[in-house]
Amino acid sequence: MTLIIENVHIAPVSGPEIPSGFLRIDGDTITELGPGQAPDVPGAERVDGAGCLATPGLVNTHHHLYQWASQGLAQDATLFEWLVALYEVWAAMDAEVVEGAATAALGWLALSGCTTSSDHHYIFPKGRGDLLAAEIEAARAIGLRFHPARGSMDRGRSQGGLPPDVVVEELDDILAATAEAVDAYHDPSRSSMLRVAVAPCSPFSASGALMTESAALARDKGVRLHTHLAETLDEDEHCLEQFGLRPVDYMEKLGWLGPDVWLAHAVHLSDTDIAKLAATRTGTAHCPSSNGRLGAGVARVSEMLRQGANVGLGVDGSASSELTPMAGEMRQALLFQRARYGPQALTARQALELATLGGARNLGRQDELGTLEPGKLADVVLWRAGGPFHAAVTDPVCALVFGPPPPVELVLVGGRTVVAGGELRTVAQDAAGRAGADAHRRLLRLAGERGVTAARRVHGD
Ligand SMILES: [Zn+2]
């Protein structure tokens, strides 16, 4: 099966842009791209890309899909206040909540040009069904490439951690369940739609033993490692107080810096921290909307890039970034860096690279994803950047990054159509949205049955 997209502006991310050219896809792979007329291939399906911009599919490298069900709560809280308000709500979730929330959240990502998403799920209340299987089923239905990270917490309040003991698990149970998840689902093949990572939640909710044992497990299984790090100054203080080290030094001590690790946020870094991340090729997932929503700070992304550290983007959980579309995160990254460092801190092309190749590197898939090149998987987005309103900007990459995301004409994952004409084609779009709203109501009802209502309060109430 051959598909040809023609008359299109191509921003391949690697190599020069092609203002009017074609892209040829055979099966799940890009086989050719170039300027001018497309070759005549008998039997090929042809898509007219006039007025559109073709980019690699966006890669989301930090999320908590289940949080779709807890949006709009603890609206004016700091990260630690927000977590404390929400842990007990999340303790009530079950597989039905997770599947509904993941369906809506992944559908939303697809509609904003995302073709690969990771997820960091770290709460597994006992007796609530198979939550990991539920989100994997949602990803299969929507048709995105999925990198679920089996998260975990074992350091409850009684052990000096932040979460209440009711949401943490025992170390041995975590390691067994994580190994089981890797064995059951991880597919290391080139065209893999599903790879599993190992992901203790954060230094303030996971013990040092869980961190080191998780690293050993991941390296034994040949999968990647993910956690939250250096998100807020509260975390800095917590690490200094409890471990006598700042977050990056603590991770270094635990064997958690390396090319197989990517860290969410990495906002509060010293010059030495940045040098360590660059030297060890440890990746980071920059989540500017979430950092803004929680008032966490502005990550030193442009300095990290100058030092050669890898940075990808993440929308983060929908409860801390609310309805952030993946494409919008490029704009947010650009604006945050410029607000902090001036107008040359990050270009539109660099923002696009963070959202594509930077993300693919975080997930260890830079050989297969993240750019439009012959031999890469056909994860492609066509943006209607020349539509009636965006057409006033004749640079389509500028229109994509500086403005509100243009409508998505086509999203291909491995050559398969997931979105066409701005609509999900793999599932009924309205039903996917309703599944998210139902999950929200169900979670609040289940939490209410446990007497948990505090998260509804906002400051000033
Ligand atoms: Zn997060």
- Runs with pLDDT <50, length 5+? none
The CATH architecture term of the largest domain is Alpha-Beta Barrel
Q: Give the cofactors and ligands.
A: zinc ion
Which band does the percent of strand residues land in?
A: 15-25%
Number of strands: 17
CATH superfamily of the largest domain: Metal-dependent hydrolases
Q: How confident overall, as mean pLDDT?
A: 95
Secondary structure: helix percent: 25-40%
Q: Report the span from N to C terminus.
A: 59 Å
- Our Rg estimate from Cα atoms comes to 21 Å
Bulk shape: globular
Write down the CATH class of the largest domain.
Alpha Beta
- Look at the helices and sheets and give the structural class: alpha/beta
Number of helices: 15
CATH fold type of the largest domain: TIM Barrel
Please describe the biggest sheet, giving its number of strands, its sense, and whether it closes into a barrel: 9 strands, mixed
Q: What count of domains describes the coordinates?
A: 2
Which short descriptors sum up this protein?
461 residues; alpha/beta; Urease, subunit C, domain 1; TIM Barrel; 2 domains; 9-stranded mixed beta sheet; 4-stranded parallel beta sheet; 17 strands; 20% strand; binds zinc ion
Please characterize this protein's 3D structure.
- There is one protein chain.
- With 461 residues, this protein is an alpha/beta fold.
- The protein has two domains: 2-56 and 375-424, Urease, subunit C, domain 1, CATH 2.30.40.10; 58-362, Alpha-Beta Barrel (TIM Barrel).
- 38% of the residues lie in helices and 20% in strands.
- The protein has helices spanning 79-90, 95-111, 131-142, 171-185, 208-221, 233-243, 247-253, 271-280, 288-293, 301-306, 318-321, 326-341, 348-362, 396-402, 429-449; strands at residues 2-10, 18-26, 29-35, 45-48, 53-56, 58-60, 114-121, 145-152, 197-200, 225-229, 261-265, 283-286, 311-313, 380-383, 408-413, 416-420, 423-424.
- The strands form three sheets. Strands 1, 2, 3, 4, 5, 14, 15, 16 and 17 form a nine-stranded mixed sheet that branches. Strands 6-7-8-9 form a four-stranded parallel sheet.
- Strand 11, helix 8 and strand 12 form a beta-alpha-beta unit.
- It is globular and about 70 Å long.
- It binds zinc ion.
- Zinc ion is lined by residues 62, 64, 120, 228, 264, 316-317.
- Zinc ion (ZN) binds at residues 62, 64, 120, 228, 264, 316-317.
- Keywords: Hydrolase, Metal-binding, Zinc.
- InterPro entries: Amidohydro-rel, Metal-dep_hydrolase_composite, Metal_Hydrolase, Metallo-dep_hydrolases.
- Residues 54-418 form the Amidohydrolase-related domain.
- Its EC number is 3.5.4.32.
- It holds the Pfam family Amidohydro_1.
